Amino acid sequence: MFVWLGVSAAFLAALLLTPPAIKIAVKLNVVDKPEARKVHSEPKPRMGGIAIYAAFAIGVLLLSEYTMPVACLLVSSGLVMLTGLIDDIRGISPRAKLLGQVIAALVLVQGGVAIRFITNPFDGGLISLGVFAIPLTVLWLVGVSNTINLVDGLDGLSAGISAIAALSMAIVCSAQGEYVAAAIAGVLAASCFGFLRYNFNPARTFMGDCGSLFLGFVLGALALMGLAKGATFISVFIPLIVLGIPIFDTFFAIVRRLILHKPVFEADKMHLHHRLLSLGLTHKQTVLTIYAVSLVMGLCAVLMSVLASAQAVIVLIIVTLLAVLGAERLGVLRGNVNIASQATTKTSHN
Predict the structure, then answer these.
(1) Contact between 177 and 15 (Cβ < 8 Å)
(2) For 22-42, how does the pLDDT look when each residue is reduced to its tens digit (9 = 90+)?
């Protein structure tokens, strides 16, 4: 009963709180203006992340699970949201933004959420990470936060893939008996779906850094609270598959920039959604295509969680190979423009 109450409340709260967030953003002139790397043609309010966080917090509080990890998740994710909000409103340096995320991650670690061990793939035993536990946990949380932020380039993209990832996590966590993490994942998905009413193309508002960083942080935290607790070696990779689109897209961006001898942190227009748009897909078609890929990856993660380790490894290898081949074919990996040029030529001929 409490789970459905929390999920329903989160969805309704996101629906009701997003319009006021839009009005506040317009009044404060917190808008995302068009520029070379962006695909929207007019300014859009970008404080939707406030509504997503508020809806999430309301839903979680109604779950009646007031444990230390849950309390620290609410506080730490709130700190991440505020860090992104300050950046949305007035702009802060990358170092200041990173510091806010690190502090939030440390708060969550204090609540007992951390990567304490990894599974030995040879004998199935546990290897304690010791002093490396906290740095690795912080690195994971900060990394996932920024991967969601990096793919937030189209109307409804980050909210949609976050919702799909959260639903996948909820299913896997339930199967593994991690019911608190599953319930929180359900609340997060409901918050995203409520926000999508105003964020799907044509979007009335964007979530901003306050939303994308928050979503990434919570997804990373839920991976530690539920998915990565398994005693099998494959459990380490399940979160990576659930978050496949943002993680692969970020990884390929780093590889691409290294291949092209460009700075790793230099922005470009060769991410997955850019490449699909260059093929002639419409805005909605591109987003729905990425939704479909995210859904397939989520289903693969669910499958991996119930299969024997050897079979799950086969699924992992197949998914990874398909991701690499797809990235190479689309030009995401090396930045080649052959496909885009062919699509443009074909369109012009037609």
Answers:
(1) no
(2) 999 999 988 887 665 555 557
